[in-house]
Amino acid sequence: xxxxxxxxxxxxxIIFISSLIPSxxxxxxxxxxxxxxxxxxxxxxLLGGFLLVKKLPIRQEPRLxxxxxxxxxxxxxxxxxxxxxVKISNASVTLVGIATSPLWVSFISPIINHRKVDYYQxxxxxxxxxxxxxxxxxxxxxxxxxxxxIVAAFFGALxxxxxxxFARTTNHYVVSFYQMGGAWVGTILLFPFHxxxxxSYLHTPTFKDFxxxxxxxxxxxxYAYSVLIKVMKKISPFTVVLxxxxxxxxxxxxxxxxxxxxxxxxxxxxxxxxxILASVVAYPIMEWAGKQRQKILAPKT
Length: 301
Known about the structure:
Elements (H helix, E strand, L loop, with lengths): L1 H26 L4 H23 L7 H27 L2 H8 L2 H13 L5 H19 L5 H25 L4 H27 L8 H25 L5 H7 L3 H13 L7 H31 L4
């Protein structure tokens, strides 16, 4: 029990770290693709050095390496869309869009893991989507930013489900190393689109940019990302993304402290956000009630 509690505490801590990333990305002058390019390259190099020093098994089965690299490409898309969303809106809007991940997991997980659909997950996911509808109905000016964040949430949910299988068999730092490599390659593949939008391929980061990217690489790409893979040995993907719905709470507070009134939104926005966060509480209660009902209806032996 104490071990599981430790995993949950670690999960909440890395969720807190992740909630800071949109606000930090907004401080960086580079484009979303450039941020992810530098972030993943630094993380890949540092993780490679760490594996060599610790003499962890870098060499893996070719099929496993290919799978980890492919999920790295998904990571690149997820992080790039997330960073792009905050660039064209703000941190609060991006965090609310990312909070729709449980709905995506409720559809993706049964398909990938060949399990029956959990209707409690579907119901709580739909509640989250109703919250998103309320946010849109407020006629706020960041509709495109929210839409991109919701698309990013799909890729984030897909990544979470796929990572849960790696967590059972492979060292989490090894998984992170290959996925950072795949993500770095993924950003290179995105550069033609970047050139089309900005007229250039790569800018040199300023001293401030470099410092913030180093922080993201250490805190998120290496520590939080690796620990997330580790905790999924004990915690289901849906629970991970459900707890991740607390990200807007942490992130909005941080954004308000950093940016002040520019992060203030309408009443409908916060009402919709509250509905999304309510799903965090609703799902475990519904799941517990369902199990209790099954025990009552189960035939006595």
